[in-house]
Amino acid sequence: VYTNAVDHSFDLGRFVGEIRRVLRPTGVFVMDFQPGFEEGYNPGDYEAIHWKSVDVLLQAIESQGGLELQEHRPLGVLRISAWHQAVFRKTQTAD
């Protein structure tokens, strides 16, 4: 599963739950995203959610249950914004 639009989700818990539901046991969830507002990112008019920092977002996704962070890496700057990428897998206890 891939997304670069987590900031357009209205409910992070439902968003993560749906990803977990459709993810195959051996599958991965790859997410491209921008840093948090404390790291210099200013949310625009169309963002439904925003976060304090990269770490806060990654921890929030893990805390929803069922997904475990495998890797996080900065991707650099594209146009005027910095981008990051995270890869998650289902936890062993996830359905």
Offer a concise description of the structure.
The protein has 95 residues and is an alpha+beta fold. The chain has helices spanning 12-22, 54-63; strands at 2-3, 28-33, 67-78, 81-90. The chain starts with a strand and ends in a 5-residue tail after the last strand.
Describe the structure.
The protein has 95 residues and is an alpha+beta fold. It is 22% helix and 32% strand. It is built from two helices and four strands, in the order E-H-E-H-E-E. A four-stranded mixed sheet has the order 1-2-4-3. Helix 1 links the parallel strand 1 and strand 2. The longest helix is centred in the N-terminal third of the chain and has 11 residues. It starts with a strand and ends in a 5-residue tail after the last strand. The mean pLDDT is 90.
Q: Main β-sheet, in a few words? A: 4 strands, mixed
Q: Tell me roughly what share of residues is in helical segments.
A: 10-25%
Strand content: 25-35%
Task: Let me know the number of strands.
Answer: 4
Mean pLDDT: 90
Q: Give the CA-based shape.
A: globular
Question: Radius of gyration in whole Å, from Cα?
Answer: 13 Å
Put simply, the count of helices is: 2
Distance between the termini: 16 Å
Helix/strand order = EHEHEE
Q: Regions with pLDDT < 50 over 5+ consecutive residues?
A: none
Order of strands, widest sheet: 1-2-4-3
Structural class: alpha+beta
